[in-house]
Specification:
The protein has helices at residues 2-10, 19-23, and strands spanning 14-15, 26-27, 33-38, 42-43, 47-57, 60-68, 77-83, 93-94, 103-111, 114-121, 129-135, 146-147, 161-162, 168-176, 190-198, 206-211, 220-227, 233-239, 245-251, 262-267, 274-277, 283-287, 296-302, 313-317, 322-329, 335-341, 345-351. It is mostly beta strands.
């Protein structure tokens, strides 16, 4: 498989979507959507998923995702692209080299001048380990790969947050008890969320939880976090279709202990979500506001730290999949959203925060 992949690189890049295919989706052009574009038009991989984005310094954007022949194949690696102010996205650059095993779910996190890339290595989400690299020059060069101890996974899909006391808090989760052919209703299928906390800038981590639905063991993964105006931490979680709702939990002690998880009123079709707390106090959530399928992706805004939400606004809809979002606010106040586009591209959408609903 590796030889085939290298051969593919040798003969040039693949065109991963045609203009006709691009026209089949319906990106929205509301007054707060400034631009929507693909991060790349051509790439040396046919399939891409699970993007993440960060601003290493004012005006510079860095995005990453995993790409290969298909999710879970041995040729899947982490790829990245940089966008300088006023310039297009750079061509995809590979950040990992693990030819005998797939990688998964990159997560970018900025702390001062240092950019962290967290990702997973392993044959499946039930067997992966956490890995990380760092960059001190905005993603041009990177440290060697390092690995977390077994039992710690790092941020599983959404970005960590920096608490008001300076500690880092990462939402993580564990999938256990099944394989691809296990019965859908098997009682030993278990999904559970956790929080990993560091008070020394990533040198050491402690694990806190579990955070689970009391009534459904096959329940929640991939949390996104924010700190509220009162100093609590809230967690929203992806759920299985058995649950069908985004699930919530709250910590009053900086992520050390958590309330029992409970479903919110927001639907979730077993798809990734992400939230960002804006500097004006509003909260932006990017998610699929459906009970089944990922063929439409939405934005909603909360003025009360996630207790209530505006009506969902469609960012894109059409044939195929629009999923696994990442969202940040850049130094200039703009909101940047990336998400999977039909498993072939990564879409980058820029929003004007001053015109958001709510």
């Amino acid at each position: 498989m590796l030889a085939n992949f290298i051969g593919l690189l040798g003969i040039g890049v693949l065109v991963v979507a045609s203009a006709a295919a691009a026209q089949a989706s319906k990106p929205m052009k509301s007054d707060f959507v400034l631009t929507q574009e693909f991060i790349y038009s051509e790439a040396p991989f046919p399939s891409a998923h699970a993007s993440t984005i960060v601003e290493p310094r004012p005006g510079l954007l860095l995005a990453a995702w995993f790409g290969g022949t298909n999710e879970g194949n041995d040729d899947v690696e982490i790829w990245s692209s940089r966008k300088q102010p006023g310039q297009p996205w750079s061509q995809p650059s590979r950040l990992t080299e693990t030819p005998d095993i797939p990688v998964w779910n990159p997560v970018l996190f900025q702390d001062g001048d240092r950019t962290w890339l967290f990702y997973k290595v392993g044959p499946s989400p039930r067997e992966w380990v956490g890995a990380w690299r760092t960059s001190d020059d905005g993603g041009e060069t990177w440290s060697d790969a390092a690995y977390l101890p077994a039992g710690l996974l790092g941020p599983i899909r959404a970005k960590p947050i920096r608490l008001s006391n300076g500690s880092w808090l990462a939402g993580t989760s564990v999938e256990a008890g099944y394989r691809w052919d296990s019965p859908a209703d098997a009682p030993y299928r278990i999904w559970t969320c956790w929080a990993e906390r560091s008070s020394d800038k990533g040198k050491n981590w402690t694990r806190h939880g579990p955070i689970a639905l009391p009534s459904e063991a096959f329940g929640v993964i991939q949390p996104t976090l924010w700190e509220t105006s009162t100093g609590e931490v809230r967690m929203f979680m992806r759920s299985t279709e058995r649950v069908g709702r985004i699930v919530s939990s709250t910590s009053k002690d900086g992520g050390r202990t958590w309330s029992p998880a409970e479903p919110t009123g927001l639907p979730n079709p077993n798809a990734g979500i992400d939230a960002a707390k804006l500097r004006d106090g509003r909260l932006v959530l990017i998610y699929n506001h459906t009970v089944q399928g990922r063929d439409v992706i939405h934005l909603a805004v909360s003025l009360d730290d996630g207790d209530t939400w505006t009506e969902p606004h469609v960012l894109e809809e059409g044939q195929g999949e629009f999923s696994y979002p990442a969202v940040i606010q850049s130094e200039d106040g703009l909101i940047h959203v990336t998400y999977t586009w039909r498993r072939t591209h990564i879409r980058h959408t820029v929003l004007d925060h001053s015109k958001l609903p709510g």
